[in-house]
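Saturday, quiet lab. Running sequence design on the structure tokens for the scaffold JK sent over.
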């Protein structure tokens, strides 16, 4: 697994052993939540911004121990993009049972705090958030009755590569190993999503249209039409193969 890297053994063991408190799972059982997952640069954040124009939704802010970074010329803000924590702070929250799910992603601690779900539920709104595959899979295991998880897929490898390059300032970077790691992470997520029928695929050609489909699913339980889902699966398989081919071209 390409996720679990660059982390000391003791912290990794804490994450591996973490059990979400049963009391927290029970409190969150009826919380309404929509989780978008998928490979980086699939367009999840743009879709979320479109959905947040509907006041029935509120954004779920997850936590990370990575440093804030610049996206499209704008520096990420604490409490907006993420709750940015030190590793010590995150470890303390793990020990206190404050996460509903927590994972090692690229050597950093990422997780969803129970308090965030409760904050949004207290507002009588639907939580909408971007969580990586591992975290989303964990949430699905808790039996949350009003949880929807969607896997966002770009319409083609070429479109995805263009988005990824644009996000990185016009270049994927010079570190070959970092590029390979990023692509293998995408491959890992796609492989798992393809083999997990609990994830509903959404092909993101137009963020506004994707947002409408997701709102309809979240509010009324209306799933995308079978032919739309089938096409999204087809594109996902093609994208996965293209990523494999690209990695091979890099000489791995």
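Result came back. Writing it out in full:
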């Amino acid at each position: 697994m390409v996720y679990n890297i660059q982390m000391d053994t003791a912290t990794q063991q804490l994450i591996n052993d973490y059990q979400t408190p049963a009391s927290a799972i029970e409190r969150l059982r009826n919380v309404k939540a929509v989780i978008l997952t998928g490979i980086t640069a699939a367009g999840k954040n743009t879709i979320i911004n479109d959905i947040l124009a509907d006041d029935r939704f509120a954004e779920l802010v997850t936590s990370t121990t990575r440093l804030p970074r610049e996206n499209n010329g704008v520096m990420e803000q604490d409490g907006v993009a993420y709750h940015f924590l030190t590793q010590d702070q995150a470890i303390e929250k793990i020990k206190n049972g404050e996460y509903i799910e927590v994972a090692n992603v690229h050597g950093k601690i990422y997780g969803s705090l129970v308090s965030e779900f409760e904050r949004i539920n207290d507002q009588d709104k639907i939580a909408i958030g971007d969580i990586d595959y591992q975290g989303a899979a964990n949430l699905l295991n808790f039996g949350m009755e009003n949880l929807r998880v969607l896997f966002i897929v770009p319409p083609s490898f070429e479109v995805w590569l263009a988005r990824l390059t644009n996000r990185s300032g016009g270049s994927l970077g010079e570190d070959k190993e970092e590029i390979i790691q990023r692509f293998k992470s995408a491959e890992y997520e796609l492989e798992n999503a393809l083999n997990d029928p609990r994830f509903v695929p959404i092909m993101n050609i137009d963020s506004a249209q994707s947002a409408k489909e997701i709102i309809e699913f979240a509010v009324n339980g209306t799933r995308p039409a079978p032919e739309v889902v089938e096409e999204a699966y087809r594109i996902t398989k093609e994208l996965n193969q293209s990523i494999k081919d690209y990695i091979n071209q890099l000489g791995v």
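Notes for JK: The chain has a mean pLDDT of 90. The two ends are 16 Å apart (CA to CA). Ask whether to fix the surface positions before the next round.
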